[in-house]
Design goal:
This protein has one domain (3-77). It contains three helices and no strands. It has helices at 3-24, 32-60, 73-77. Helix 1 packs antiparallel against helix 2.
């Protein structure tokens, strides 16, 4: 996956996230399904940003960026802030 592909995926997920928030903005809130989807979107965004960071780090270290891989949600969500 190239950087433009990753950015494209981030944009798609962000648009869907914005749509969910906008639909809840009328005061009705989110359905259980929408709430679950929103949580899944946030995890997928974290995974995409992690992949970009890996690729940037590999580039800066003079390593092949293509060797970076999309980490599991379990790995990404357990990072310490």
């Amino acid at each position: 996956m190239s950087d433009p592909d990753i950015y494209s995926r981030i944009n798609e997920l962000s648009a869907e996230e914005e749509h969910l928030y906008a639909s809840a903005g009328d005061g009705s809130g989110l359905t259980e399904e929408e709430t679950e989807r929103l949580a899944a979107i946030k995890v997928e965004l974290d995974r995409c940003f992690d992949l970009l960071h890996q690729r940037d780090g590999r580039r800066l270290a003079g390593l092949p960026e293509a060797d970076a891989s999309l980490r599991s949600s379990e790995t990404v969500e357990r990072y310490q802030q």
